[in-house]
Amino acid sequence: MGQRSWAALALLLALGPASPGTTISGLWGFDEPAATDLGPSGLTGSVGEGVETGVAQDGAIAYRFPDVAPNDPPVRPEHLVTVDDSPGLDPDDGVFAVTLRFRTTSSPSNIAQKGQRSSDGGYWKVEQDDGIVRCLFMDDQGRGVSASSTGRIDDGGWHTVLCRRTPDDVTMWVDGGSAVRVAGATGTIANSWPLTIGGKSRCDQKWVGCDYFSGDVDGLRVEKE
Questions:
Q1: Into how many domains does the chain fold?
Q2: I need a labelling partner for 45 at 20 to 30 A (CA). Which of 35, 53, 63, 161 fits?
Q3: How many whole angstroms separate alpha carbon 165 and alpha carbon 120?
Q4: Do the beta carbons of residue 193 and residue 201 sit within 8 Å?
Q5: For 87-121, how does the pLDDT look when each residue is reduced to its tens digit (9 = 90+)?
Q6: What predicted TM-score, i.e. pTM, was given to this entire model?
Q7: Which residue range(s) make up the domain with 65?
Q8: CA angle, residues 148, 151, 154, in degrees to nearest 5
C-alpha cells in the first residue's frame, strides 16, 4: 500500500464510519502544505496565505485558522481553503454526507460550506454559533432543513461531526453519539460555487458577513450516493 493509501486509511479511521450507501467525493486530511484530496476525485484545494499548515495539536497534524473577528473588516480571502466546484460536492436530489474533525474556542463561524444564501441552486454549510454546531441544507426553492448539536463543542477539544442529508431529512452525529434527526424535504441542491473551509468566499463585512472560523481543522470527508 502506497503512502497516499496509508494516509487515506488513517484519515478514514479518524473520521469514523462512512455514511451508508455513499461513495467518497472528497477526502482531505489537512496535514500537508497543499490541501491534497486523498480520495479518488483528485480535488486538491488552494490554501490561503493566512492559514497555518503543519500544526501539531493533541496528536493530530492540522490546519490552523488564526483567531480573527468573524464579521469585522477587513475581508480576508487569505483565511480560506478553497476547492473548485465539482459535481461530487453537490447533494443534488439524493443522499449526501459531510464529516468534519475540528477544534475551536471561538464563535460564531462557518466551518465549511458550498454556496451561500444568495447562491442559485441552493447551498449547504456546517457552522457553529455560541458553541452549538449546525448543519444546514437549503434547496433552490428556499426550503431549508438543519440539525444542531445538543451540547457545546467550543471547549478546545477535537470533535467529529457527521451531517447526513437525504431527500426527506437531515441527521447529525457528534463524536459518534446519539443521532439528532430533523425531518423535512429539500429538493435539488447544486450550485457552481467553490467549497470553502474557514468562512465565506463572497462577503464584504458590511452587508454580508464573512463568518470566519478560528480554530483547527484536521479532516473533511464529502460523500454522495
A1: 1
A2: 161
A3: 19
A4: yes
A5: 999 999 999 999 999 999 998 999 999 999 979 99
A6: 0.95
A7: 3-224
A8: 95
